[in-house]
Amino acid sequence: MTVLSEEIRDRIRAEFPKYPNKRAVTLPALHIVHDTLRAVSREAIVEIADLLELHPAEVHDTMTFYNFFKTEENPQGKNRVWFCRSISCMLRGGEELLENICQKYNVTPGHTTEDGAVTVEFAECLGACEGAPCILVDDVCHMDMTTESTSKLIDEL
Amino acid sequence: MAEFEPVLFARINKPDSASLATYKADGGYSRLEEFLKLDPADITAQVKNAGLRGRGGAGFPTGLKWTFLPKDHKGPIYLAVNADESEPGTFNNRYLMEKDPHQLIEGIILACRAIRCNMAYIYLRYEYGDSYRILEEAIQECRDAGILGDNICGSGFALDIVVHRGAAAYICGEETGLIESLEGKRAWPRIKPPFPAIEGLFRKPTIVNNVETLCCVTHILYRGVDWFRSIGVQPDPNNPRDPGSLGPKLYCISGHVNKPGCVELPLGVTARELIDNHAGGVWKGRRAKAVVPGGISMGFLSADELDIPLDFAGPGSAGCLGLGTAAVVVVDDQTSMVDVLYNCCRFMAHESCGQCTPCREGTQWMTRILERIRDGRGRLEDLDLLLEVAGSMGIIPGTTICGLSDGAAWPVKNAINKFRSEFEEYIKKQSPSVTSAQKLMMAAH
Ligand SMILES: Cc1cc2nc3c(=O)[nH]c(=O)nc-3n(C[C@H](O)[C@H](O)[C@H](O)COP(=O)(O)O)c2cc1C
Ligand code: SF4
Ligand code: FES
C-alpha cells in the first residue's frame, strides 16, 4: 500500500522538467502532498524521497526546517487560518483578534478545532499590513478583520 | 516641484490591469523586440548608468552586480527573482505582482537578456496565493503569445520563468537562503564569498534581484537613463563614492495611521510627508512616538527624526541600519515601546535559521529579557545587557553569516538608545502589564 496516489505522483513528476535536478522538487512535492493529504506522514516522506532519488532523511530535514508542513501526529484540519502577529497587525489589534477567536472556538494556535474544521496558526507578517489586522485562510488573504468578520468567515468554511 | 507621476503604479487601478491585453494596449512589450536586439552589455550599461540600486533592502547597484558574472560563461546562468517579501511592514512587491505582473515579466526578460540567462525562477513566499495564481496566468499568456519560450519575438533569445513557492520562512528572502531553499534544502544562508554571481543557484552563476528592482529595469529601458536620473536624490558631487538615491520608490505605510497603503514617490521623501500627506495623519488625533523607516530590521526613528529623507543615506544618518524596504510603520504615543520592541525581538527569534550561535542564542536571549521586563521582573542592568547582546551579533561585528542578525540587533539598539527613559520607568514600576492576548503570543515563539 502506498500513501501517494498515482495522481499525486504524476503531479510531482510534472515538476521535474522545471529544474536541473530532482532535489529542487522537494518543496513543490511537499506542497502537493500537504495540500492533498493535509499532512506529510513518515511514509509519504519515504515515497517522496524515492521519487526524487533522495534519502528520506534529506526530505525530512528540509520539511522540518519550514514548520509549515503538518505531521501525521498533528494533521491540518479542513482549512487552515493564519493570524498575523507581526508589528503592524499587533498595533491594530491582531493579538486580541487571535485571542478572541481561540476562546470562541476553544482552540490554541497550532491546533485544530475538535470538529476538525479549522486549524488556527500564528503567522508572521503576511505582507498585507495596510489591511491590519489580517488573516490568511489557506492561501487567501482577508484584511481589516474583526472578531465578528473572522467568526463569520470561519463559520462559512 | 511638478506633481510626481507614478510609473511603477501607473496601471494598478485600471480595470483588468493584470492581463496581457491591457498591458499591451498601454504600450507594454511594444519595444521588446527592439531591446532584445541590443547587445546584452548595452542593457547592463543602461541599468548601471541609470544608477538603479536594489529595492530589496541592501541598495546595491543593480547594473554593477550584473557585471560581476563571469565573462563568456559557457554553462547556464540563472536569475532568481526575490519575491519572498517577508520583512514586517512590507507589501509593495505584492501590489506589483497582483496588479501589474507583465511589468515584472518584461523586466525579467530584459534582465535575463542582459545577463544571458535562459531560465528564471521567481521565489515567491507561500502566503501570496493570489500573486501565485496571477503570475502563473500571466506567464502562460506570455508563453502562448511567444513572449516567453524558445524564440522570444523572433529574436532567437530563449527564456522560461518558473514560479517556486516558499513555505513561510523569512530567511528565504536572504539571497543565499533563497538559493538553498530553491535547491530543496533548509534555507541556511551560505558563507560569502563566493557570491551568487560567481557560484549561486545549482552552483552556477546567479543574479538575485528584487521584484521592484526588476520592474524599474522595464522603465529604464522604455523611458531612458536620463528620465530615471531626473528623479530622487542626486549623488553628492563632493563624494565620488555616493551613488545617490535615484528613481521612483514604492513606500509602504502601515501601523497607527488613518490611511495605511502603498504609494509611489521619488526617493527621498520624509516620514512626516508620508504620514501627513499620504496616510491621512496619525490615527485618533494622536502623535507619532516612533517610526520604523524600512521594515523592523532597520530600527526606529524617534518623533524628532521624522524630517530625515527616506533615501539610501537618510535613515543611517539617524542611527538606523538603513533604508531597508522603505516600509514605514508608525507607532503612536499611547503605545509602549517595550511591547513594540518585544514584537520585533520575538519575530527575529522565531525566524533565525539557527546556524550562527550569536544569532540563534542572541535573538532568544533578547526575547527572554524583554519577557522578564514585561513580567514586572526587569532590572535596570537589563538594558545594558540587551545592548551588549545586540552589539555582539551580526555581519557588522562580524560574528554571523547573514544580515538577519544585524536586523535583530538594530531595533534593540535604537529602542534602548532613543527611548531609554521609557524602558527605565517601565522596569521601575516592577508590575506586570502584559494582557492575556499578549501572553498568548509569548506562549510560542
Ligand atoms: C534576513 C534577510 C531577509 C531578506 N529578505 C528579502 C526579501 O524578502 N526580498 C528581497 O528582495 N530581499 C530580501 N533581502 C535582501 C536580499 O538578500 C538581496 O539583497 C536582494 O534580494 C537583492 O536584490 P536587489 O539588489 O534587487 O535588492 C533579505 C536580506 C536578509 C539579510
Ligand atoms: S545570522 Fe542568523 S539567520 Fe543568518 S545565517 Fe546566521 S543564524 Fe541564520
Ligand atoms: S504585520 Fe501583519 S500583515 Fe504585515
Order of helices and strands of chain B: HHHHEHHEHEHEHHEEEEHEEHEHHHHHH
- Indicate the mean pLDDT of chain A: 97
Given the structure, what is the number of helices of chain B?
18
How would you sum up the major sheet of chain A?
5 strands, mixed
Bound molecules: flavin mononucleotide, iron/sulfur cluster, FE2/S2 (inorganic) cluster
Question: What do these coordinates show?
Answer:
The complex is a heterodimer of chains A (157) and B (445). Helices cover 43% and strands 13% of the residues of chain A. Chain A has 157 residues and is an alpha+beta fold. Chain A folds into 2 domains: 6-65, Arc Repressor Mutant, subunit A (Orthogonal Bundle), CATH 1.10.10; 79-156, 3-Layer(aba) Sandwich (Glutaredoxin). A 5-stranded mixed β-sheet of chain A has the order 2-3-1-4-5, covered by helices on one side. The model of chain A has no long low-confidence stretch (mean pLDDT 97). By secondary structure, chain B is of the alpha/beta class. Chain B has 18 helices and 11 strands. Chain B has helices at 20-25, 32-36, 40-50, 62-67, 92-99, 101-115, 129-144, 175-182, 211-223, 225-229, 271-278, 314-317, 337-351, 357-374, 381-391, 404-418, 420-429, 436-443; strands at 78-83, 119-124, 160-165, 206-210, 232-233, 245-246, 248-255, 261-266, 288-292, 301-302, 327-332. In chain B, the strands form 3 sheets. Chain B has a 5-stranded mixed β-sheet with strand order 8-7-11-9-10, with helices on one face. A 4-stranded parallel β-sheet of chain B has the order 3-2-1-4, sandwiched between helices. Chain B starts with 19 loop residues before the first helix and ends with a helix. Bound molecules: flavin mononucleotide, iron/sulfur cluster and FE2/S2 (inorganic) cluster. The site of iron/sulfur cluster has 14 residues of chain B, from helix 14 and helix 16.
